[in-house]
Amino acid sequence: MNFSVITSGSRRKRVARTVFTPTQTATIISNYYLLHFIETESYQIAARSSIKKFDKEGFATLQIRRKMLQAKIILAANGDEEDSEEHSDSDDAFENNSAPINKRKNMANNVTKKKQRLNIDDQTTSNRSNNQSETTFPGVSIFNLMERKFDIIEKRLLSIENHSGEKMARLTKKIDNLSSASIINKVAIDTYRDENNESFRKDLMYGDIDLLQTMGSTFGDFARKTMKIVFTEEELKERILPPQRSHLSRPSLDLAKFRIVNDAIRIKYKIDSTKYDAFYKNVLRRKLSDFLIEERRRESIKSTRDLIRTQMQTNPPSSHQLMPVLVNVE
Questions:
Q1: 192 with 271: CB under 8 angstroms?
Q2: Closest to 47 measured CA to CA, from 80, 69, 72, 79
Q3: Which residues on adjacent β-strands are paired with residue 42?
Q4: Is the pTM of this model over 0.90?
Q5: Quick one: which of 166, 267, 258, 256 has its CA closest to 212?
Q6: What HEC string does the chain produce?
Q7: Nearest Cα to 299, choosing from 237, 216, 252?
Q8: Phi and psi torsions of 45, nearest 5°
Q9: 58-68: per-residue pLDDT in tens?
């Protein structure tokens, strides 16, 4: 068989290669583009048909979810490179069919190359799919970013709300305590107020001090301040409320001065004279007794501190003796 006749009869016509000069321009349109969305810091592979416009600065404009987005073109590639390579391989194989042995070898080599190329393409496709799975869609990435921002804002608002709630709870508790105390004092004293339109004095002088001008937040506070004006510090520390009791070692306060204090309280808060004894017994006596106990306790603590301060000035304690002294003071 004459192989040269077959070869020459079926050989494909070759076309001369086009050579471009610097004055000529060629527009190469790629089928696929790797785009970088600067706004969302994400990457996406887009087909030529999805891109609406190209500009001279290397940016492409495309529409995603009815929104026009602009992205930087990182890489452009054609999807028909493999086909052109396969055509060139088939041409080479067809040209070498004049030699049967070389033809078989070339066909075997082509099959091997195709298998290798298929394996590489499969691996590239899998890598692309993985990268695409890792690379979020621009619209989705914007949504996720907004969702994270809203979560951060929500957490901050919750922390502010909790902090404000704690402050409001403490403030409410203080207001409740003050209001409850004022309500208790008001209820306690309203029961004993004058209802017969008694004419009360406008002033009550003790020396050159008008006791009715003493300011007090409650009747108990007014009574304590009046006691400090009428009685001396020694009397408040060493004595008890009248009347005098024989089984107690402490003497009682001066009864005449104590009556002045009671008159000031009755006139200041307009308490009925017929109900004042019950008011003193049920409400006022306990407050005045606690006041005298606090005065004695305050003096005892002050005396102890003065004694310790004097001892430390005369005999400064060492480091191992200082701790027991502090413990005893506390």
A1: yes
A2: 79
A3: 37
A4: no
A5: 267
A6: CCHHHHHHHHCCCCCCCCCCCCCCCCCCCCCEEEEEECCCCEEEEEEHHHEEEECCCCEEEEEECCEEEEEEEEEEECCCHHHHHHHHHHHHHHHHHHCHHHHHHHHHHHHHHHHHHHHHHHHHHHHHHHHHHHCCCHHHHHHHHHHHHHHHHHHHHHHHHHHHHHHHHHHHHHHHHHHHHHHHHHHHHHCCECCCCCCCCCCCEECCEEHHHCCCCCHHHHHHHHHHHHCCHHHHHHCECCCCCCCCCCCECCHHHHHHHHHHHHHHCCECCCCHHHHHHHHHHHHHHHHHHHHHHHHHHHHHHHHHHHHHHHCCCCHHHHHHHHHHHC
A7: 237
A8: -95, 125
A9: 888 888 877 88
CATH for 205-329 is 1.10.10
CA–CA separation, 222 and 212 (whole Å): 9
Per-residue pLDDT tens digits for 278-308: 999 988 999 999 999 998 888 778 778 888 8
Of 37, 11, 27, nearest to 95 (Cα)?
11
What percent of the chain has pLDDT above 70? Answer: 66
- Domain ranges in the chain are 1-17+80-135, 31-77, 205-329
Q: Is 296 exposed, middle or buried (0-12, 13-18, 19+ CB in 10 A)?
A: middle
More confident residue, 115 or 247: 247
- Cβ atoms of residues 165 and 158 within 8 Å: no
Asked if 30 contacts 77 with a C-beta cutoff of 8 angstroms, the reply is yes
Question: What's the Cα-to-Cα distance from 17 to each of 20, 22, 26, 279, rounded to whole Å?
Answer: 10, 16, 14, 122
120 pLDDT band, cuts 50/70/90, is low
